[in-house]
Write a structure and sequence with these properties.
- The chain is an all-alpha fold.
- The protein contains five helices and no strands.
């Protein structure tokens, strides 16, 4: 669910800025990267790589914004943190990555590694 929320937010913000006024070609590239990574995150394809790319792109957008009151930087920083966390968590059960490569599970057995007295 987190992957879907971040993906839709990336696509929405990128589309809103692209349909608004794009002042520089670099801003257009930033928004195209955000839209593409959002679409791939929604599908769950290459989630760790594209989650990291989305995080870097959102940091780039936040650092390159002019000091206008129209676009608060905190939205982009928040999306960068969430994208990085999705990159570390992975795609989840309902994704193309899980179908192609199998789902990874991390064991949560807390008794492993402890010595038992016999």
């Amino acid at each position: 669910m987190m992957r879907l929320g971040i993906g839709f937010a990336l696509v929405y913000l990128a589309a809103a800025r692209l349909l608004g006024e794009v002042t520089t070609p670099i801003a257009g590239v930033q928004e195209l990267i955000a839209a593409a990574t959002g679409i791939f995150l929604i599908a769950g394809l290459w989630t760790p790589i594209l989650g990291a790319l989305a995080a870097l792109d959102q940091v780039w957008v936040a650092l390159s914004l002019q000091s206008s009151g129209r676009d608060p930087k905190w939205i982009y920083i928040f999306l960068a943190v969430l994208s990085a966390s999705v990159a570390m968590l992975g795609p989840g059960a309902w994704s193309i990555d899980a179908r192609l490569f199998g789902r990874r599970r991390f064991p949560s057995d807390r008794t492993r590694g402890k010595k038992t007295s016999s």
